[in-house]
Design a protein that fits this description.
single chain, 216 residues, 10 helices, globular
Length: 216
């Protein structure tokens, strides 16, 4: 039996490295040539793997450009469900996301290029938004399980969507990550992502209290 909460083993690290290489190759090629002109074959060749391997990591051609990770969302949800009871739901979500984003600082250039690629392609922008909304619902379900308002294996239907609080927390957390990444990218290569991330979630924890006026 595997321990989902354990540090990733060698095989898992290799899988994550291959997936990151494919996503990076896709984004770099799309930034240079336009996403519509980049094939799975070109992405695979740039990453040093076969086109067949590509589909072990992404469900579709477009997923590579929006950097969708099928496993990352589940790791976050598991961490939220398994977080210590002493943590508030917001703290549990924050810690789960912080763990998943621990290596973001090493990939600032790729995140910037990804934003450029999405801005140039309405199709990919819509694809990314749809995937984000699906992940948001699943995170809300994990939060609801943590709160005890949903059974662990219960799935949402039109009649049994998560309650307002889990939905709102999941949406706010997703927006917080996006704002943190965008603000960090805008600060330049010397910015510390972990510091920006902590500041964003501290503002949320404080209830978005109005900041003091800037010193004159």
């Amino acid at each position: 039996m595997t321990n989902e909460g354990a540090a990733p083993g060698l095989r898992e690290r290799k899988k994550r490295a291959t997936r990151a290489a494919l996503a990076e190759a896709a984004v770099r090629l799309a930034a240079e040539h336009g996403a519509e002109n980049v094939t799975v074959e070109a992405i695979s060749e740039a990453a040093g793997v076969s086109p067949r391997t590509f589909f072990n990591y992404f469900d579709s051609h477009d997923d590579a450009f929006v950097m969708m990770d099928r496993d990352a969302g589940e790791r976050v949800r598991h961490a939220v469900r398994a977080a210590p009871a002493a943590l508030s739901p917001l703290e549990a979500v924050r810690e789960a996301l912080a763990t998943e984003l621990v290596d973001v600082a090493e990939r600032q250039e790729i995140w910037r290029l990804r934003a450029t690629v999405l801005q140039r392609s309405p199709r990919l922008l819509v694809r990314g938004l749809g995937a984000h909304m699906a992940e948001e619902i699943e995170l809300a379900e994990a939060i609801a399980v943590r709160l005890g308002s949903r059974a662990p294996n219960e799935k949402s239907t039109a009649a049994s969507a998560p309650d307002l609080y889990p939905r709102l927390l999941a949406a706010v957390a997703g927006t917080a990550v996006r704002v943190a990444v965008e603000h960090w990218c805008a600060q330049g290569p010397d910015a510390d992502f972990s510091e920006v991330f902590r500041r964003v979630f501290t503002l949320l924890t404080d209830g978005l209290a109005e900041p003091p006026p800037p010193a004159l």
